Amino acid sequence: MEGVHERDQTTLPECVEHFGQVLSETKKTILHVKGHLTKAVDETRKLDVAKLKKEHRESVLTKSKYIFMKNPENLTEKQVPKLQELLGYNLRIVRAYLMKEEFERFWQYKSPCRAGKFLHDWCVRTMRSKIEPMKKFVGTIRNHHDLLLNWFKSKGTFERHRRGFQQQSEIDRQKRLRLRLK
User: Is residue 17 a part of any domain in this protein?
Assistant: First the structure.
């Protein structure tokens, strides 16, 4: 095609494929971190169930496993009132669940600096909670702190490149249209 560089035609699909792979890796990272956090919450629930069983109050947490593992918007109609009831108890699982929900804010940050501050503050508060499975999760987060913040840096780079490729794609489309009209 005249007027459209050979380089532009081959580079764009290759870059789109590359960024598709980057996005896939990013999703895997998020799911991996969320999986570890959910596991810590479930281990906390098991500790509370054992403690309540010794006190002969195990019915408090009956049928609550998936309530604490699900995102609030995915709860069934029966689970919503049960969660509201459970949130009234002063149990480690309730505190762990609230920490898990608060951690979701981490993924919304745009700035690596602000995300780092949030992560640091969240880790300090979680360590003070004295909930062992959550403290273990904090250890994992601290070991991978730089990698998590790199996710934010790459997210910003990805967005800038994506916008640039969209603009380049539009320019190429307009060039092809002008060539057809000649």
Answer: yes
